[in-house]
Design a protein that fits this description.
It is a single chain. By secondary structure, the protein is of the alpha/beta class. It has twelve helices and 24 strands. A hairpin with a 4-residue loop joins strand 4 and strand 5. The chain is globular, with a radius of gyration of 24 Å. The model has no long low-confidence stretch (mean pLDDT 96).
Length: 524
C-alpha cells in the first residue's frame, strides 16, 4: 500500500472465529516500524461481526513502514498479521493538517502547533449534539458554513449522554437520536453499536474535508443533552477508559482533540483512567484536556502527564468573565487554557450574548491568557434542535424560533470565526499575557516578535517607556468586526504609539516579520 504523510491508511483484520464479547473482551493492536527505526503502536477497533480495523497515519515523509499485529486472544486472523506501507516524499496537499501535521502542544505548553512547528490557534464551535442527531447532508451544510467563517474545530459529545433520555432512534424525528451503546441507559459502555460509529465516520469525514477538527468528548459529566442524568459520573472507570481507547483507535489517525472530561468538577470516576488510556495509545501526541462546569476551580489533575489543557466555562448568563481564564493561566504546572463555553448566543431569550458580544468575549478571553484558542456557541445549535419549536428541550438553552439551521446564521459566529483570519500566519506560539508594556487593558506578547492587543473602544495604543524593544515597530490596526485593516505602518521608535482615531473596537498587531514596505508606506 502507498500513502502520503499525515494521510490515514486503513487495514482490515478478519477473525477466524466468533468472540462472545468482541468490543469489551478482545484487545488488538499493531506495531509499525519505519526504515529509520521509529516505532509507533496503534490500537485496532472492532467494527462488527468478525471485523477489526487498524488506522494509521505516517508522521514521516518517505520510506517504508512494516506492521505486525498482536492481540490478547489466540486468533490467527488477529495475531501475527503483517504488511507494508510506502510513504511519499511530500504531503499530498489539502488542508493544513495534511500539509503541516496534526496539532500538538507548543514547546512551552501554552498554545497549539502543528507537528512541523507551524503556529496554530483553535477557533471552535459548539455542536455537541451533531454526532447522534445530524445527517450527513446537514453536516455538509454545517461544515461549509463554519469553515467559510474561519472555524477549525467543533466540540462534540461522541454519544448521547443522558441515561433517562427517550425518543425514537431516528435522526429526522422530533426528540429522536441515534444510539452508540445499548446499555448506556444503565450507566455502562459494554454493548457498542458498530453502525452508529460507521455513521459517525462519515460525519467526521465531512468535517475533515473542511479542515474542522473534532473535539471528541467520550461521555458528559454534567448537564448533558437535556439534563436527564448524564452517564459520565457513573460509568465504571475501566469501561470509560476502554471507550477512550476505542476513540483513539477509530479516530486518532486523523486530526482530533480529546476532551476526556466535560461539564463536571474534573475528579469524576473515569476521567483519570481515560486520560491515562489516551496517553498510552495515542501515537501522535494530540491534545488531551478537561472542560469544566461554571462553578469549579478548573484545576483537576493539573500535574498529570496526560493533561495538556484546561478549559473553564463561564456559564450562560450573558456576562463577560475573562478573569476566570486569567486565574487558570497562573495555575502550575503550566497547561494551556481557554474558555470552552461562553454564553450561547440567544440562549433562553433573544438578545442574550448577541452579535458583537461574542467577538468581544473571544478577544477578551484570548488576551486574558486563553492562548489555546477561542470557542463560540449558539442556542439550539449545540443540542442540534431539528426545527424551531421541537419539543423536549430545556428552554434555558434553546434560542426562541430557531433550530440548528437558523442558529447557524446567528451574527456572533462571524466575529469569533474572524479571530483565526486576523491572526493567521503570525508567530503566536506561546504568546503570554502582557499587562505592563502598553496603556491597554489586554495584550499578548512574544518578546521582540509579536504583540497583540484588543481595545474595546480603539484609540491610540500608547507604549510604556520601559517596553524597550519588546514590542516590534511594524504594526497593523484591524477592525475585529470585519477583518479590515484600518491602519498600518512602522512606528518611528519604540516609545511611539500605534495610532488610531478611536470610537470602535480595534485589534492592534505589532509583528517584526512584516515587510520593510510597511515602513515606506507609513512615510509616504
Amino acid at each position: 500500500m502507498r500513502t502520503s504523510p499525515w494521510q490515514r491508511a486503513e487495514f482490515t483484520l478478519t477473525a477466524e472465529w466468533d468472540h462472545p464479547a468482541p468490543y469489551a473482551g478482545v484487545a488488538v493492536w499493531a506495531e509499525f516500524t519505519h526504515d529509520s527505526g521509529t516505532t509507533l503502536r496503534r490500537p485496532a477497533f472492532w467494527d462488527g461481526g468478525r471485523t477489526w480495523r487498524i488506522r494509521f497515519a505516517s508522521p514521516l515523509a518517505g520510506g517504508r513502514w512494516r506492521w505486525r499485529t498482536a492481540a490478547d486472544v489466540d486468533d490467527p486472523g488477529l495475531v501475527g498479521r503483517t504488511g507494508e506501507l510506502t510513504v511519499a516524499d511530500e504531503p499530498a496537499g489539502g488542508n493544513p493538517f495534511r500539509v503541516h501535521g496534526f496539532w500538538r502542544m507548543s514547546p512551552g505548553g501554552r498554545s497549539l502547533v502543528h507537528a512541523d512547528g507551524t503556529p496554530a490557534l483553535l477557533v471552535g464551535d459548539t455542536a455537541w449534539g451533531l454526532p447522534w442527531r445530524a445527517t450527513e447532508e446537514q453536516v455538509r451544510v454545517y461544515a461549509a458554513d463554519r469553515a467559510e467563517k474561519g472555524f477549525n474545530a467543533a466540540l462534540l459529545m461522541s454519544v448521547q449522554p443522558d441515561m433517562d433520555a427517550r425518543g425514537p432512534r431516528d435522526r429526522t424525528a422530533d426528540e429522536g437520536f441515534d444510539v452508540a451503546f445499548e446499555d448506556l441507559p444503565d450507566g455502562h459502555l459494554d454493548d457498542l453499536v458498530p453502525a452508529y460509529f460507521q455513521h459517525l465516520d462519515r460525519l467526521l469525514g465531512v468535517l475533515d474535508e473542511h479542515g474542522v477538527v473534532p473535539v471528541l468528548q467520550p461521555v458528559f459529566h454534567g448537564f448533558g443533552w437535556k439534563g436527564l442524568r448524564a452517564a459520565g459520573p457513573v460509568v465504571p472507570p475501566a469501561e470509560y477508559a476502554r471507550y477512550c481507547r476505542y476513540l483513539v483507535a477509530r479516530y486518532g489517525a486523523d486530526p482530533v482533540v480529546y476532551l476526556v472530561g466535560a461539564d463536571g468538577g474534573g475528579h469524576e470516576p473515569g476521567i483519570e483512567a481515560g486520560g491515562r488510556e489516551i496517553e498510552e495509545w495515542d501515537a501522535y501526541g494530540q491534545p488531551c484536556g478537561i472542560h469544566y462546569r461554571p462553578h469549579s476551580r478548573a484545576d483537576a489533575h493539573q500535574d498529570a502527564p496526560w493533561l495538556d489543557f484546561q478549559w473553564c466555562q463561564t456559564g450562560h448568563r450573558g456576562e463577560h468573565v475573562p478573569e476566570r481564564v486569567a486565574d487558570m493561566w497562573r495555575n502550575e504546572p503550566v497547561r494551556a487554557v481557554a474558555n470552552g463555553e461562553p454564553t450561547y448566543e440567544h440562549s433562553g431569550r433573544r438578545g442574550k450574548g448577541e452579535g458583537w458580544w461574542q467577538g468581544h468575549e473571544a478577544w477578551s478571553n484570548l488576551c486574558a491568557g486563553g492562548t489555546m484558542g477561542v470557542v463560540y456557541g449558539a442556542g439550539s445549535l449545540w443540542q442540534w434542535v431539528l426545527r424551531p419549536g421541537e419539543p423536549g428541550h430545556e428552554p434555558f438553552f434553546v434560542a426562541e424560533g430557531a433550530g440548528w439551521r437558523e442558529a447557524l446564521d446567528f451574527e456572533g459566529s462571524r466575529y469569533v470565526g474572524l479571530v483565526s483570519r486576523i491572526l493567521a500566519g503570525l508567530p503566536t506560539t506561546d504568546m503570554a499575557p502582557s499587562w505592563d508594556l502598553t496603556l491597554a487593558p489586554r495584550g499578548l506578547l512574544v518578546p521582540g516578535r509579536l504583540y497583540v492587543s484588543y481595545g474595546e473602544h480603539g484609540g491610540d495604543l500608547r507604549v510604556a517607556p520601559w517596553a524597550g524593544e519588546a514590542i516590534p515597530l511594524p504594526y497593523r490596526v484591524v477592525d475585529p468586526r470585519t477583518g479590515e485593516i484600518t491602519g498600518s505602518g512602522v512606528r518611528e521608535n519604540h516609545q511611539a504609539p500605534v495610532p488610531d482615531p478611536g470610537g470602535a473596537p480595534r485589534v492592534y498587531l505589532c509583528h517584526a516579520g512584516w515587510a520593510e514596505s510597511e515602513r515606506h508606506a507609513s512615510r509616504s
